[in-house]
Amino acid sequence: MQATKPVRGKEKTELVRRAGLVAWVCLVIVYFVWGSTYLAIRIGVETMPPLLMAAARNLIAGIILFPVALRRARRWPTRAEWAGTAVVGVLLLVANGVVGLGEKSVPSGMAALLVATVPLWLLGIDAGLNHARLGLAPLGGLLLGLTGVALLSGLGGGHVSVTGALTILGAAFMWALGTIMARRGTLPASPALASGMEMLIGGAALLTLSGTTGEFSSLHLGQISARSWWALAYLTVIGSIVAFSAYGIAVRTLPTATVATYAYVNPVIAVLLGALILGEHLTTSMIAGGVLIVGAVVLVVRRSPPSH
């Protein structure tokens, strides 16, 4: 029996390393895919009602993901797990839909910059609920990242809707709160199952909001452009099924400050895609801001405390 202990210990260490590697791969997916979704949302809401588009995106993704994950889990979720995923799903996915609502009057790149406030909301809520303390390096990284965001703010160039900006800031707060609740709530052990449940519940909440705000009456299928349909397809498969599931894995495994860095990388991706696809002009301040944001990511990631 004693001879097997080192082997079991080695196997356990190897499993921990693999889990950590998977979590990092998932975070990289979130970095790049969610950076591109701002552009896709902007294209989608050109001819689709924003809340209804978000509802369709998440309901379709949930209908696809939930039965597959349920078959692998081989058990029906408990009431506590349904309750936990309901809270997280409503907060995260309604926030996602609200971003689309804000992008009706705010450029996609500027929306990404506003959502970059998520780390401040995230770490502030985490400190309040979990009595977590920030070290000097993570705090310095967050401040450096905000400086980069300030330099990038020239992207908006002209008048930006105050209502649209406040709407997106409110969505950033909701997303941060949902992220914290994902750590505290009772969720299924399977991240894929949890994601599928959250998408179904969050999509249903978005559908209800869409109906109460009168979006159904403004929907005309014949007036929806082909590129808006393609944007919806991309958001459903890549943005929801792939990236949202990846986020669920990362947020359970990596430290809060580490996961929060995705909100600094996403604006960089959004700005680059705007320049490459929409022909937006890149200025020196934008490039400098991008460099500062990447530096902030490195500082926060390397100095973050272990996951608790």
Question: Descriptors for this entry?
Answer:
mainly alpha, 308 residues
Structure overview:
The model has no long low-confidence stretch (mean pLDDT 81). This protein is mainly alpha-helical and 308 residues long. It is globular, with a radius of gyration of 20 Å. The protein has one domain. It contains 13 helices and no strands.
Helices and strands in order:
Elements: H1 4-44, H2 50-73, H3 79-102, H4 108-115, H5 118-130, H6 136-152, H7 162-184, H8 191-212, H9 215-218, H10 226-253, H11 256-260, H12 262-277, H13 284-303
Beta-strand percentage range: under 5%
Coarse structural class: mainly alpha
Please tell me the overall pLDDT: 81
Count the helices. How many? Answer: 13
Low-confidence stretches: none
Q: How would you sum up the major sheet?
A: none
Estimate the helix proportion, in percent.
over 70%
The secondary-structure element order is HHHHHHHHHHHHH
Label the overall shape.
globular
Number of domains: 1
Number of strands: 0
Distance between the termini: 31 Å
**Radius of gyration, CA atoms, in whole angstroms:** 20 Å
